[in-house]
Amino acid sequence: MTVRPLHTLPLLFVSAAVLAQQPRPTRPVKEGEIDNQEITVEKSRKIELPPANRLFNKIPSVKPSTEQRKLTYEFEDRKLTVGDPRITPGVLAPATTAPDENPAYDNYVKLGAGNYSSFFGEGFVGLNNLSNLSLEASARHLSSGIGPVDGKNSAQADTRLNVTGKYLTDAFKFQADLGFDRNAYGFYGYSREYAARPDFNPDRIRQRLNTLNFRLGIENANAENAIDYSLKTGITSLRDRFNAAETDWGTNFNASLGITDNVFALVAADAYVTQRSDGPIVDNRNLFRVKPTFKYSSSFLTVTAGINAVNETDKRQSINSTRAFPVLDIDVVPTGNIHFFAGVDGDINRNTLRSFLTENRWLAPEVLLANTVKSLDIYGGSKGNLGGGFSYEGKVSYASYRNFSTFNNSIPDTTKFFILYDGGVSRVLTISAQLAYAQKDKFRSSLRGDFFRYGLERLDEAWGRPRVAATWTNSYVLNKKLFITADLYFYEGIKNKNFTSNLTYTLKPIYDANVKIDYFLGKQVSAFVALNNIFGQQYQRYLYYQVQGLNFLGGISYSF
């Protein structure tokens, strides 16, 4: 469907692969057309900027001990989070944990409703009185019957079910997880003229994502063991309403061996086997990573050094490449809890259909999938505790990338987005700072800002990514009865282009303020209310997609 007037197509995107990003069902694609895109896929890999939510790392202990041998594992895929504000349109859920409540009531049920014909339901049941065995089940549903534009056409509903089993012994912990997610929404970024056409069919703009995942894991539970380890493996199956599908099998292994009181040997290994099918397109894409490092830790100096070797294969694009990246991190503690750190590393960001949909759910069919290579990242900064409950971190990173990914409206259907990669060398400067304050268990506040400067070689702009991102989050507990959280988000400098009309848009700055209040009426009953987008700014995170204005959700919770 042609949403907006057709004008001259920029030479940058005159390629059959881009034209393949049309609405279903008419989307002929030829295998040979991918290499003709402006998107140049280098047969190497990895990109990696430090994830936005990990700027404020935990301050390492100044005294080496057996606790330093215990690893903190991260099994989520390393994502390109440069300039990726995680704003999801819709009513935010209220807080799910009561402050300092009676631990006997671990189970709960919550029900709520709000404007935009919103409904919220959540429940949790745990069985923990078995010997060495615990079982947990949870369910959550959040929906809006009408959306910010055209009523039901912009409605959305998210449902999540999860079952977890844990078996704990003195030597190890075994865990199994089974989960299902269903996300229903619409491609409502169309023009008013298109909606008025007699052939407009709301059913054609509906999308639905069903995700099923199963995961097993085992890890060391004895802190006195010389070897600390964790092994997890799982399969995730994604399918959308138009029969696009992705099956992803991932396995992650981490281990640590204490050689002396100050020297540790660590190894991290990942293996991913992925298949994506979408119309005539079938992608078989694998990635294998091994990262051996050595760590020296004392009260004054911590040094981690090693190598990160990554192999990626892509059958459809005839890629079979192995690259090695340096790993070096130096942390100096000249006094007290003040740290100065610097380092260099590189990696390959594994991009999948599921990871891209997490960032932008309005993707066009048959988008090109390619990993992003972080060739080199040089960083440095400082972090520490200032006393009086204050802590801080500041960091500067200068990184080089291949296949830096961006999101922009497709052609001629501007309601959907395709993924544009910068096939040249992209250099990104990131300046981040965070200041936090905590007053025991009563009040916590954190203010963070990120500035991004994109030096792209082939793309005109870093489409869909902001230049400035800032967040301010707060939580306050009053007399163990009232629990308040408040946050403010600010994003600026986001650009998208309509290649149909050849017009470039700088989206208005985003100001999004939210407040959530939980009031505990007794040991088992509490009431909650959430106010979101208090400023009522119907901003666009992506071009033509207006979000809900001021919205609220209120309800009651019962614990048992």
Question: Could you describe the 3D structure shown?
Answer:
The protein is mostly beta strands and 560 residues long. The chain contains 3 helices and 26 strands. The strands form 3 sheets. It has a 22-stranded antiparallel beta barrel. Strands 20-21 form a two-stranded antiparallel ribbon. A hairpin with a 2-residue loop joins strand 9 and strand 10. The longest helix has 7 residues, at 353-359. It is globular, with a radius of gyration of 24 Å. Residues 1-102 have low confidence and may be disordered.
Largest sheet features? 22 strands, antiparallel, barrel
User: Considering DSSP H and I runs of 4 or more, what fraction of the residues is helical?
Assistant: under 10%
The low-confidence parts are 1-102
Radius of gyration: 24 Å
Principal-axis shape equals globular
Number of helices: 3
Q: What is the tally of beta strands? A: 26
What structural class is derived from the secondary structure elements? mainly beta
The N- and C-terminal alpha carbons lie at a distance of 52 Å
**Strand coverage percent:** over 45%
